[in-house]
Amino acid sequence: MSCRALAGVLLLSLLYAVPSRVYAFCSNEGPYNIRQCSTPTGTPAWFAPPPAGSGTLSAAWWQIGMGNRAVVDPTQGASSNPIDGDGFIDTPNPGRFIGNDSGALTIGMADGTQSGGMDLISATDVGGPPGSLCFSVSASWALFLDGCADQNRTYSSTGNTVDISDYYLNPYFSAATGGRGIYSDYALVDSAMGVLLTESTSRHFALAFFSSTTRAHNENDIFDRGFDMGALINGDPNPIDARNNIVPWQDVPFPFVQIVSGPSPNLDLRLTWPSIRIVHDGSSRPNTAATIDPISGRHVLGLDPNGLPLTGVGVLQEPVLARYQVEYRAFDSGTTCDPNAAWTNVGPPLFQAPQINQVLESLVTVPEDVCVRLRTTFGRVPTATFRTTPATATTRNQNRFDAQAGRLGDLGYEVVGPGIPVLPCSAPPGAAEVCNGLDDNCNGSVDENIAAVTCGIGACTRTVPGCVSGEPPACVPGSPSTDICDSIDNDCNGLVDDRDFDLDTYPVCVDCNDVNPNVSPGTEEICNGIDDDCDALTDEDAQGVDSDGDGLRNVCDNCRFHINPGQADSDSDGIGDPCDNCLFGMNPSQEDTDADLHGNVCDNCPEASNPFQEDEDTDGFGDACDNCVSMQNASQTDIDLDLEGDVCDLNDNMIYTLLPNDSTVRYQLESGFGAFNLYRGNLAVLKTHGIYTQSLLDSPDAAQFCGLSSGNMNDDSEPGPGEIIHFLVTGVSGVEGSLGTDSAGQERPNDNPCP
């Protein structure tokens, strides 16, 4: 933590003393909150609910390099001197390091006090699922613990004389004394922090590392403003805003143990296990100019396990945040672990950096009849040993330096897996054989029955053995090639012979011209010299290629079954003359309803066969369909619908009148009448006065011809210029019949009847 000449930094509660205990603090130090239930960004985060079957929860926190719990004092850094906050009990010399800047967490209701420890409370109120936990708003440190541990006892301002007898060096640096790279007795930016949750069955844990927050996300900002767990970047997804800041529970590392050889007299073992998931905030706050303490002659930040200087206080500046140690102890009288036997380290520890995830392996040699287990410790690796002699101020200051520089490391923040009895070929029941050069299932064979591996599809399919010399060989698919018509998926896209260059939905194997979208199976053949329908024939139709043998292919021939080499077509209807059923009338459909070889267009009886086209009365209707064969009846009217046309029907109650020439009036001799009266009149008078049978008084053209019976009457009269005369005929059978009806259906009046 930092002692600095700033007041009220994120201050949430006042400093106070608790009866029977005085807590060391700097007079100008503020509490440094850990935000999780409510983060500076306003989005809550939390610890995920523990897995089913978990036991009672415990929790602890510590600053990286300052959490040596092996010697934690029950008072958690309490001192009778409110100024002395260096993390040591001073009497007797050389003092005793008491685990500064670390402590336990209270899980339950927040009590809102600094003396109660940092509180973990239910996160359901901020959106977490049942069982989730988060730091309450009262979670802070520096007041209820040894909050001034990094402050020189005599506290000198910048540039003032340092009390050499109580000298210490800050592991980070102040802008007030020249910026990063200058050690100072004035201000300290806190190193990264760890929080560990465990449960009493020792099967699961939750862990996170994070640095103090910076202002404006500036990595060079050396003044902290508390800790923000909402800044975690590789936890589980947060359902509220999709950030990955939910701290997950993990399984305690448990190795798979294999006997490589032995006993002779010892056993050589191979232990493998997946590395833990180090959840962190990705903080990078490097120090590029760490210096040497002029008093102790030691590097300010100590050395990492490889002897290199530690530089910076971000999580990513920590070269190691998890270390694994294999341990063993003897059996009891049987083949189970002796609970009274001591655990002994075996083999070197393995280290894991913040951003590394991998499968770890340890090769160790142990005696027969032992159990093995894995101890996983979190935090910085110790690089110095606490000195107990001589009991001098120098020894005390050396210990202080080592502690404050993180050289004493972090001990006790760990999880331990259960003991595993090492028995000859101790494979669990049903263990599967894997490719590793070992007898995993204890059947006396190595890497047996490992299935071959197949990769790729189509022509790219490749198969390799499942195991070669204890290693699974790589299976590399073949390279795709251009798809051709060979019933093989040459281009390895999962489809056989599917290439379609012209995109007409017909692949290359069935499309005879895959570069022309107008050519494909089923396409209508047209006269173009191309096999349009992919049947290996050109310009053919269903009847063949050249059915009449005139040298013209069927779809190009206007008479497919009649020789017509010149393609004569008199009516230009696309049907050649030799086969056109209407030679001089356009009839492209060649419709012939009566099948008399005369198309409907030119047939004088389209619906009655009249192969010779006889037409006695030359009225355009063939005799086969003419309702008046001997009399012209171009309109084919038949008022009584008796199939006998009006002009020749003598019993349809209508007297049909004709003018065959300029001087003859011909009228039908309608049956039922003995005589006929014929009336002549002027059409203009009829139109003007409505008089059908007119007298000479009405018009000089008027005349009556009464009692006629021949059917013909000569009339040489001629109308005057511009005049039109009309004739009306009535039948007489005792009485004179009607003149018929007008166009409106009204009976015509006979104003001047024959006498």
How would you describe what is shown here?
This protein is mostly beta strands and 755 residues long. Among the domains are: 593-643, TSP type-3 repeat, CATH 4.10.1080.10; 657-736, no CATH class. The protein has two helices and 29 strands. It has helices spanning 393-404, 683-689; strands spanning 32-35, 57-63, 88-89, 96-97, 102-107, 118-122, 133-135, 140-141, 193-199, 204-210, 227-228, 249-251, 256-261, 267-274, 322-330, 344-352, 359-366, 370-378, 414-416, 420-421, 453-455, 462-464, 657-661, 664-667, 675-682, 703-708, 712-714, 725-733, 735-736. The chain has a seven-stranded mixed β-sheet, with no helix packed on it. Strands 15, 16, 18, 19 and 20 form a five-stranded antiparallel β-sheet that branches. Strand 13 and strand 14 (267-274) form a beta hairpin. The longest helix has 12 residues, at 393-404. The protein starts with 31 loop residues before the first strand and ends in a 19-residue tail after the last strand.
Class computed from helices, strands and strand pairing: mainly beta
Percent helix, as a range, is under 10%
Rg on CA atoms, Å:
58 Å
Instruction: Count every beta strand, where a strand is a DSSP E run of 2 or more residues.
Output: 29
Number of helices: 2
Distance between the first and last residues' Cα = 147 Å
